[in-house]
Amino acid sequence: MKKLIPGFLLLTLFASCVGGVPDKKEVKNKNANTDREYRILKEAYKEYFYIGAAVKLGEYDSTPFYQTYSEDVLKNFNSFTAENGMKPENIYREDGSFDFTYGDRLVDYALKHNAVVRGHTLVWHNQSKTLFSKDMDKEAAKTLLKNYIQNVAGHFKGKIYAWDVVNEAVGDGSQWRTSSPWYKYYSGPEYIRDAFIFAKETDPDALLFYNDYNMVNSSKRARVVKMIKDLDLISAGLDGVGIQAHWNLYWPSKSDIEQAIKTFADMGLKIHITELDIDCYSGNSLTKEIDYTARLEQQLAERYAEIFSVFRKYSQYIDSVSFWGISDKDSWLNYFSGGRTFDKERKNYPLLFDREGAAKEAFFAVSAF
Ligand code: XIL
Question: Which DSSP helix (H) or strand (E) runs through 189?
């Protein structure tokens, strides 16, 4: 990939200004509820960054994404992340054996479709219960961490180009997530540095990321910066930060996003936007189900247009933008908002494709620029 002078864009712009050649990259979206034409996202953003999506692979009785979505939808993406299939509890068995079924499925699909895979995630406090089945001291935890990373990053070596090595290790109101079993076993945050060292040793060519939410918030961001410096993570192998981007219709502001990008770019780090979605309830977990009105459809489209204008502006620092899901139907935000999980679905509308897999206004807003 890259990106210095998006020459074809300039040409296309020039041609369309003088009423010249149509953009050959425009194709019909057979799935769309309108006859409008659009540019395939990965083509439109070829000179900017990868366009990715988190996908289901059969874990937790889900249907693998390639059986849910048509090629017309999937061809928009050139990067994929396992939404859940590569988290520790779906890879590691309590007897110490490994099961790579879901990750292998994704790598297989990506290879055949000329796409890359982001690995998510090696070290996290959630969805890792098989690693945390018994209490242990620091030495035992270090051995387990090393064994896990060596096996997983080793298995996918050369097939996964970027890893979220550590996910959400910084606290929301304090420096560390002290409730993480890794933190407890280690009696401190050194597991974070160890994880990068083990990942780097195992797959020196993979790009290694620290991934977290709310990094557009200045105090959370300051804690992440402090972690990177205090634990000297760059010398341990850190290449970049994953900004999750679970955002909403009103938050964060353009300048919050710009500040986050600039801070990490100034540290010489790469930036991936890893889990983009827009909560249409804007973090309000108490509101009853809303209707998806034409007004909301438009508001979401404008919000996406605004966000992508920032991403394009800073594309020299951003190598990948991934949505957390493909259509509204399979978004985790139907069951989660503002830090609360629901037992019953509350329909949300955070993504570019609707429940039937048709492109929404937000899709056209992202694809046309
Ligand atoms: C979420 C998945 O989307 C859900 O299906 C699952 O039940 C919980 O995890 N931050 C992350 C992701 O890094 O792994 C989370 O994914 C969303 C928040």
Answer: none
